[in-house]
């Protein structure tokens, strides 16, 4: 039963309905691992209809089977986000399977270190292997193709499906690297994430009139399989945690709240925003 807000006279929504993702058709690129898998699993648990798009077929098979066994409505397709025709076809297939596309997470990304510094037991040292002079065209282009152009192609595919229905939610995974420098990763990653963040704002402005919101989740240090899975090392986690304002690293589950907020009616009037979920990482060092 809705109550009335005495101040405005408008009806207050049911708070559970506000955050509901039930029966929403959701696409997650890079959804077979790490942050994307966390998004997929959280929304599946909330009753959404999930399509995982990822280039790792083995992981898709394993995770889709695991989630289906848990009773969730999940399907998956092997797609490389740099293959734009295949990406468009996968959106067509998701729409055919679930009848619509409500929410799209443009999340697939890579972190091909090294950067110009290395973090080791002796602290931060310069790493010539990751310097600008050593940076190849191929490496630059690969990161841009996946982490920036792949986001563009995913958002374009989403807009094509959502605009005729005048409804949709697009959520891009950026990074603290869109605003600060993660010098251990490499130059193209910063450029791609900053580009994704600003692209998010222009897409949000263009699509707002069609009731499509476009926002970003900007994670801090999250334990996933990125960069070869180095973040799984407990010694590395403990050392890194000391440098973080909240004194702990994060896991994909720490991003679920932001994902549900941005996918649900709770964020109805929020667009063009980059929400940092980083435990204060981008604020600076406190201790
Ligand atoms: N882990 C972190 O600390 C962190 C921090 C900030 C931002 N991010 C961003 O989060 C996103 C997800 O990364 P993650 O940490 O979960 O890594 P992850 O490696 O665990 O998962 C990434 C998934 O994307 C898939 N993928 C990679 N390239 C692809 C392509 N060309 N086409 C389709 N799928 C592809 C991989 O197969 C993998 O399943 C990335 O955009 C990354 O830049 C991660």
Indicate the topology.
Layout: H1 15-18, E1 25-29, H2 34-45, E2 49-54, H3 57-69, E3 73-78, H4 84-98, E4 103-106, E5 117-120, E6 123-126, H5 137-162, E7 168-173, H6 187-207, E8 212-219, H7 234-243, H8 256-263, E9 274-277
Parallel strand pairs: 1-2, 1-4, 2-3, 4-7, 7-8, 8-9
Antiparallel strand pairs: 5-6
Helix pairs in contact: 4-5, 5-6
This protein binds nicotinamide-adenine-dinucleotide.
Residues 29-30, 32-36, 54-56, 59, 79-82, 107-111, 146, 150, 173, 175, 219, 221-222, 224-226 line the site of nicotinamide-adenine-dinucleotide.
Give keywords.
8 helices, binds nicotinamide-adenine-dinucleotide, 287 residues, alpha/beta, two-stranded antiparallel ribbon, seven-stranded parallel beta sheet
Named once each, the bound ligands are:
nicotinamide-adenine-dinucleotide
Which value, in Å, is the CA radius of gyration? 19 Å
Poorly predicted segments: none
Helix-strand pattern: HEHEHEHEEEHEHEHHE
The appropriate CATH architecture is 3-Layer(aba) Sandwich
Give the structure's gist in a few sentences.
The protein has 287 residues and is of the alpha/beta class. Helices cover 38% and strands 16% of the residues.
Question: What does this protein look like?
Answer:
- It is a single chain.
- The protein is globular and about 60 Å long.
- It has a single domain, classed as Rossmann fold, CATH 3.40.50.720.
- It contains 8 helices and 9 strands.
- It has helices spanning 15-18, 34-45, 57-69, 84-98, 137-162, 187-207, 234-243, 256-263; strands at residues 25-29, 49-54, 73-78, 103-106, 117-120, 123-126, 168-173, 212-219, 274-277.
- By secondary structure, the chain is of the alpha/beta class.
- 44% of the residues are buried.
- The strands form 2 sheets. It has a 7-stranded parallel sheet, sandwiched between helices.
- Nicotinamide-adenine-dinucleotide binds next to α2 and α5.
- Nicotinamide-adenine-dinucleotide binds at residues 29-30, 32-36, 54-56, 59, 79-82, 107-111, 146, 150, 173, 175, 219, 221-222, 224-226.
């Amino acid at each position: 039963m809705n109550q009335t807000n005495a101040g405005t006279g408008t009806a207050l929504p049911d708070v559970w309905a506000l955050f509901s993702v039930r029966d929403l058709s959701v696409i997650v690129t890079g959804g077979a691992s790490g942050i994307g898998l966390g998004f997929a699993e959280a929304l599946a648990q909330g009753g959404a209809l999930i399509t995982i798009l990822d280039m790792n077929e083995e992981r898709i098979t394993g995770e889709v089977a695991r989630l289906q066994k848990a009773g969730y409505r999940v399907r998956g397709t092997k797609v490389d986000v740099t293959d734009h025709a295949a990406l468009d076809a996968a959106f067509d297939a998701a729409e055919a399977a679930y009848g619509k596309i409500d929410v799209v997470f443009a999340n697939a990304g890579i972190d091909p270190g090294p950067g110009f510094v290395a973090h080791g037991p002796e602290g931060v040292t310069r790493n010539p292997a990751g310097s600008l002079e050593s940076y190849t065209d191929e490496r630059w282009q690969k990161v841009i193709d996946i982490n920036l152009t792949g986001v563009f192609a995913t958002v374009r595919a989403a807009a094509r499906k959502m605009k005729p229905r005048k409804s949709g939610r697009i959520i891009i995974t950026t990074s603290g690297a869109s605003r600060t420098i993660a010098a251990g990763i490499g130059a193209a990653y910063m450029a791609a994430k900053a580009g994704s963040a600003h692209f998010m704002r222009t897409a949000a402005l263009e699509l707002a009139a069609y009731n499509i919101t476009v926002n970003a989740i900007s994670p801090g240090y999250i334990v996933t399989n990125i960069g070869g899975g180095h973040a799984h090392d407990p010694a590395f986690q403990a050392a890194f945690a000391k440098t973080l304002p909240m004194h702990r690293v994060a896991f994909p589950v720490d991003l679920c709240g932001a994902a549900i907020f941005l996918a649900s009616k709770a964020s109805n009037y929020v667009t063009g925003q980059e929400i940092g979920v980083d435990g204060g990482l981008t604020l600076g060092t406190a201790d």
